[in-house]
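Researcher: Let's do a round of design. I'm pasting the structure tokens now; please hold your answer until I've finished.
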């Protein structure tokens, strides 16, 4: 099998991509339910419910274990990667988003001679809450199960 055929037949990779896509797509109706408005741009944004990074890595881990074996080093590497991504999503990236909110509030409130210091807003929706990470975990598990069962 040549490299291109191998790439397109890699079920582990395509399961992870499907989980990412599903999580990103779910952000649109969930945002609508919470914020009461449609924002199709949520598909391309980071942050929000569910975590697509988590869904991506969790489905990758499950499919790696399923195809290579749950007792293999490849599965262990995938699980460690998923744990790091979930920790980072709910820790460092979340704090960065909270800092951006505070800075944006300061920018909005501080005026010099009646003019704002700057009108550039920082991106606030960067990280995830623990609930959003768990949402991504569930999406990753469900997509991996669909791939295994189909």
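Researcher: That's everything. Go ahead.
Model: Designed sequence:
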């Amino acid at each position: 099998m040549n490299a291109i055929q191998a790439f397109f037949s890699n079920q582990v990779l395509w399961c992870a991509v499907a989980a990412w896509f599903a999580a990103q797509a779910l952000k649109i109706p969930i945002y609508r339910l919470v914020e009461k408005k449609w924002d199709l741009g949520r598909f391309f944004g980071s942050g929000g419910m569910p975590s697509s990074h988590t869904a991506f890595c969790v489905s990758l881990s499950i499919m790696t274990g399923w195809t290579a074996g749950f007792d293999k080093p490849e599965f262990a590497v995938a699980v460690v990667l998923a744990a790091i991504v979930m920790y980072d999503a709910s820790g460092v990236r979340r704090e960065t988003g909270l800092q951006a909110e505070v800075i944006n509030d300061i920018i909005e409130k501080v005026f010099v001679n009646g003019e704002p210091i700057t009108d550039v807003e920082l991106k606030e929706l960067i990280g995830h809450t623990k609930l959003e990470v768990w949402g991504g975990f569930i999406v990753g598990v469900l997509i991996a199960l669909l791939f295994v069962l189909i």
